[in-house]
Amino acid sequence: MIDINAIRADFPILHQEVHPGKPLVFLDSAASSQKPTQVIEAMNAYYRQTHANVHRGIYALSEAATTAFEAARDKVQHFIHAAHREEIIFTTNTTGSMNLLVQTWGRANLGVGDTVILSQLEHHANLVPWQILAQEKGFTIEYIPITEQYILDLEAYQQMLNAGNVKAVSVAHVSNVLGTISPIAEIAHLAHQAGAIVIGDGAQSVPHMPVDVQALGVDFYAFSSHKMCGPTGIGVLYGKQHLLEAMPPWMGGGDMIRKVTFSGSTWNDLPYKFEAGTPAIAEGIGLGAAIDYLSNLGMNNLHTYEADLTEYAHERLIEVPGLTLYNPEPVMCGGVATFTLEGVHAHDLAQILDYEGVAVRAGHHCAMPLHRECLKVAATTRASFYLYTTRAEIDKLVEALYTAKTLLGGHSL
Length: 413
Ligand code: 7TS
Description:
By secondary structure, this protein is of the alpha/beta class.
């Protein structure tokens, strides 16, 4: 069970007023989560006592730093149930993971006549890297459409696979805008039958639910530390060992080589082949502490708590006159509520909510094609929840929406 008071006590940032008399109601965890004291302290302790570069110095401090950093890799491996620690590549964030994948696997395997399937609900991080490479290599990108229930249209997906030449399918496990939880295991199974590899964007799933990459059957999976109680600056690309082995490196430099001569170089073993330069050591240690924190609570408990909160939020929000929700039914939805309010611009709305202490995100949430071409709106307002969110905060959001309606009355600020 989740003890919400004990959890909130772990997050110092939550206990403040953002405007006089307005306590912070932080509803933007899908953009970046807050950090518990345990993570902040783990990073502080590292900088106070253990910092040195990793993988190089033959001295106690460097060995201690290396041990702590590599322990974080083991924690990530176990957290997502990867078969081998060599399959965990540290990157900068989900964006970094996707670019690495596209520039290595994609560059080596895609060309004219090939198709890559994405979906209409993708974040730009899983769109733009593919588009950049497609311009150069001439492969085709197709997008699985979303239905009126805001879920992926799997019949259309099957037809795309039947058309042939599909080399890769890359989709978000959970949408950052709609909250849609997609059936990745089924998507992966169908892709493999068609001879394609499967990449999961786990930026919004790994922080919120148990994830088992082997059970999902994905070939690659990407996520960010900063959305799962960890620090910014570090992310993960999981990849099946045989695929990673076959991939050329991307960035060159220290740590990723075995031997360098003036006429050429050979590459280090996994995972270091893809980790050029000094890594984000303190951030890795912070991510390890975040995984310990989440594991102690239990990802199933966390998911159950958030699912209940999401259902409550949707119920409360649809009562607000003029509000349109852009989410599937709560059982298929992660911890978000995304909406427009008739006659009120999303940015004006977010500003009024801020005056009331309520922090939400407004805009296209880095999913511009989804907004413009599918939802037919330029911007939405999104409230997103995490383990420290309370029902009282959702009530506060709803109250602030009524205040906004009264204040704006259909006019812009
Ligand atoms: N994929 C998804 C599904 C995301 O939600 C995000 C970030 C990314 C990729 C990129 O992650 P990054 O850590 O590399 O930036 N999503 C959001 C958001 O919804 N609001 O701000 C960032």
